[in-house]
């Protein structure tokens, strides 16, 4: 099995090091990852400047771009043949609920899925982010990788895996949860009296709904959420069926 490994914490992060060490027992591993931290860049792609990829040691490439750039560059430029699977992570901190829309870790897996390659995003939900904690998570990642290598994934599907702090009590198949937010903008003054802002603020946690990724993590379970690329809201597609006529247009075919 040829395994492409990437992340959004950077090519030298402890999470990618632990993941790679575990996956080398499963197959051949090639790392193509950002040369520095690229957290919360979502599915951004570099279009207006060239990319550089430095092979810092055999089969390890540092790219001055986003996680999406790394997957695209690996599949279309750096690798001699397509990988059998893309493993993204292990991220420092969870990617649960609405947070997945910001996540570079998750978006790397999304890009691989767009290219027809099975993919999984892995996150360690809570610190401390020591080598021991990442190592435990990496063993779970290796088991999932073996399973996908044998059984595959459904079409148009990739997995978002979050691993709780400490030894997991089990594994739960989950759906995406919903985060609660407050004070998303922090306003400060610099020494010259000019305003500046920090984005992020303090989160209130997640809505406590059965079957969600956030609830599973709260219960000490590994959360595995199948995601797909079709963002269509099919219920609303029917509910809004009269919109064309309402604004003066004939309903087209479809």
Please, could you describe this protein's structure?
It is a single chain. This protein has about 250 residues and is α/β, with parallel strands linked by helices. The protein has one domain (about 1-180, about 210-240): Survival protein SurE-like phosphatase/nucleotidase (Stationary-phase Survival Protein Sure Homolog, Chain: A), CATH 3.40.1210. Helix content is about 30%, strand content about 30%. It contains 7 helices and 13 strands. The protein has helices spanning about 15-25, 65-80, 105-115, 130-150, 215-220, 235-240, 245, and strands at about 1-5, 30-35, 55, 60-65, 85-90, 120-125, 160-165, 170-175, 180, 185-190, 195-200, 200-205, 220-225. It starts with a strand and ends in an 8-residue tail after the last helix. The mean pLDDT is about 90.
Question: What's the gist of this structure?
Answer:
By secondary structure, this protein is an alpha/beta fold.
Radius of gyration: 20 Å
Class from helix and strand fractions: alpha/beta
**Main sheet, how many strands, which sense, barrel?**
9 strands, mixed
Shape, principal axes of CA atoms = globular
How helical, in percent, are the residues?
Answer: 25-40%
Order of helices and strands: EHEEEHEHEHEEEEEEHEHH
- Do you know the CATH architecture? 3-Layer(aba) Sandwich
**How many structural domains?**
1
Mean pLDDT across every amino acid position: 92
**CATH class type:** Alpha Beta
CATH fold-level label: Stationary-phase Survival Protein Sure Homolog, Chain: A
Number of discrete helical segments: 7
Strand order of the largest sheet: 3-4-2-1-5-6-7-13-8
Bin the strand percentage.
25-35%
Superfamily (CATH H level) name: Survival protein SurE-like phosphatase/nucleotidase
- Beginning-to-end CA distance, first to last residue: 42 Å
Unreliably modeled segments:
none
According to DSSP, the number of beta strands is 13
């Amino acid at each position: 099995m040829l395994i492409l490994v990437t992340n959004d914490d950077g090519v030298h992060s402890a999470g990618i090091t632990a993941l790679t060490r575990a996956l080398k027992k499963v197959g051949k591993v090639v790392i193509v990852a950002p040369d520095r931290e690229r957290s919360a860049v979502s599915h951004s792609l570099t279009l207006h400047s060239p990319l550089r990829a430095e092979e810092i040691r055999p089969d390890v490439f540092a790219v001055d771009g986003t996680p999406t750039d790394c997957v695209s560059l690996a599949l279309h430029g750096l690798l001699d043949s397509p990988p059998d699977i893309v493993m993204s992570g292990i991220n420092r901190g969870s990617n649960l609920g609405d947070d997945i829309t910001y996540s570079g870790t998750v978006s790397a897996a999304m890009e691989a899925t767009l290219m027809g390659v099975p993919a999984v995003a892995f996150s360690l939900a809570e610190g401390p982010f020591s080598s021991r904690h990442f190592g435990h998570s990496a063993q779970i990642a290796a088991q999932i990788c073996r399973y996908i290598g044998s059984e595959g994934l459904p079409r148009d599907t990739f997995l978002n895996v979050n691993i709780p702090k400490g030894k997991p009590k089990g594994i739960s198949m989950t759906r995406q949860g919903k985060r609660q937010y407050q004070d998303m903008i922090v306003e400060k003054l610099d020494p010259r009296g000019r305003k500046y802002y920090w984005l992020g603020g303090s989160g209130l946690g997640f809505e406590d709904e059965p079957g969600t990724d956030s609830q599973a993590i709260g219960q000490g379970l590994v959360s595995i959420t199948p995601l797909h690329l079709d963002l269509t809201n099919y219920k609303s597609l029917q509910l809004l069926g009269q919109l064309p006529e309402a604004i003066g247009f004939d309903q087209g075919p479809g």
